[in-house]
Amino acid sequence: MKKSVLITGAGGLIGSHLRVSMAGKYNLRLVSSDPIPDLETVVGDITDMTGMIAAFKGSESIIHLAASRRVSSSWDAVLRNNIIGTYTVFEAAYHAGVQQVIFASSNHVVGTYETVYAQNIQNSQHVIIDHLVPLRPDSLYGVSKCFGETLGRYYADHRGLRVICLRIGWINRNDAPTGGEIACSMWQSKRDFTQLVEKCLGADHVKFDIFYGVSNNPNCYFDIEHAREVIGYVPLDG
Amino acid sequence: MKKSVLITGAGGLIGSHLRVSMAGKYNLRLVSSDPIPDLETVVGDITDMTGMIAAFKGSESIIHLAASRRVSSSWDAVLRNNIIGTYTVFEAAYHAGVQQVIFASSNHVVGTYETVYAQNIQNSQHVIIDHLVPLRPDSLYGVSKCFGETLGRYYADHRGLRVICLRIGWINRNDAPTGGEIACSMWQSKRDFTQLVEKCLGADHVKFDIFYGVSNNPNCYFDIEHAREVIGYVPLDG
After folding, report:
1. Of A6, A197, B122, B207, whose CA is between 20 and 30 Å from B30?
2. Choosing from B26, B113, B117, B141, which is the catalytic residue?
3. What is the ipTM of this complex?
């Protein structure tokens, strides 16, 4: 029997890719702020607790993508969509009997370590930022994603959910690592992202963890070994 | 010339102690949600940006204590007072030209490590939880204090403030370590807390750091060595 998986923010860049690449393998449900043509979608607001509990009932896993996604997002935007919205999603998941939440975090929770990239290039060393380093957000957007991660830790430790946070690097529309060197170093191909998400969906043994969403890129200073060890993520691109 | 220091939450248990123990040594200003008898106080709400900017102007350091303080606080309470309120305080401090914010965080940002205490007792080992361990909040209150710490890190790294987070253990009204063993292990005497705050106020070299607010207690699993090394905190009680 196919696993029931619900995607919030299903109309966005990453959500649109996931619902196509995962189609047929899962019993997919979609939540979006706008209708998605030709697909059955719950059109709803992630700050609506009652609506989210109703939408989540019967799903085993939630992939929570809906958010203000720009690093330059205002406080008002991240407060509403990323803080209140993410709280609502976790609390609704708990009340709806969902077993797992996969939270779309961001490299911007540790964005201040970007200096490590320059130092690595300069010194021909290779320092790695892993999932255990202290949080150093580079923006209010990054702070809001730190909030989502620590909230997820709380729901995993104390409310019985299984939670995985994915610190997504840089997934782009044309699915190619074109742009600045730092952006390229944290690029993730769409098929590598799908692989990472599907490995998370199958990881019943993981109570809580944090993985970086990056392909196998030269000069990447984010750790991918931890995801390989824990869930067998093996990026095909880079 | 005395340093200008403003205390938010000056009418609370800890604020009331600080304004007495620090009186005369600093040019103290007070912000409180209620009037404080016989003292000049700005009666205001920490979610009022305009009011806080006006209140903060001319202060070198802010000691931000105002918050919903119960570990059982509801989401609505911590969202308003600890998340929106703390954002307002940091942003207002930035706009008012304040140099340093000392943020009253809490042991509850790492409260899930409480099992370490039991294990230490059982194994006669002594594992220490320091300022670098991954955040593991035990409550929505703890999550809200995690938010304040990562927000402080952002304001230190990117907005020019100096920020110190104090993970306060257990300060109580009668200033004595009476109660359960875990509470006693993280007790802090009022005079040790004042010492810790005053050492922070003098620590011009600290751009960002996190210290535990505990006395020198047996069986304490929170690190006090880091505060001793960085700012010379030497607890007198325990």
Report:
1. B207
2. B141
3. 0.96
Residue B221 has φ and ψ, to the nearest 5°, of: -105, 10
What pLDDT, in 10s, does the model give residues B182-209? 888 899 999 999 999 999 999 999 999 9
Least confident of A45-59, B33-47, B83-97: B33-47
Helix, strand or coil, per DSSP, at residue B17: helix
Instruction: Assign A89 a pLDDT band (cuts: 50, 70, 90).
Output: very high
Contact state of A154 with B139 under an 8 Å Cβ cutoff: yes
- Tell whether A238 is covered by a domain: no
How many Å apart are CA B211 and CA B145, to the nearest integer?
A: 14
Of A26, A113, A117, A141, catalytic: A141
pTM to 2 decimal places: 0.97
Instruction: Count CB-CB contacts under 10 A for residue A138.
Output: 20
Measure CB to CB from residue A134 to each of B112, B132, B158 and give the nearest one: B132
Q: Is residue B45 part of a domain?
A: yes
Residue A236 lies in a domain: no
Nearest Cα neighbor of B110 from B23, B4, B186 is: B186
Nearest Cα to B7, choosing from B71, B101, B145, B107? B101
The count of domains in chain B is 1
Cα A192–chain centre separation: 13
Write out the residue range of the structural domain in which residue B187 sits: 4-231
Token pair of A203 as six digits:
């990881």
Q: B127 in a domain, yes or no? A: yes
Which amino acid belongs to residue B186? M
Residue A154 sits in a domain whose CATH number is 3.40.50.720
Q: Judge: B137–A146 Cβ closer than 8 Å, yes or no.
A: no
- The H-assigned helical ranges of B44-177 are 49-56, 75-77, 85-96, 114-123, 140-158
Instruction: Find where tokens 């080992």 sit.
Output: B125
Using the beta-carbon criterion (under 8 Å), do B154 and A147 form an inter-chain contact?
A: no
Q: Is A154 a catalytic residue?
A: no
The pLDDT confidence band at residue B178, using thresholds 50, 70 and 90, is confident
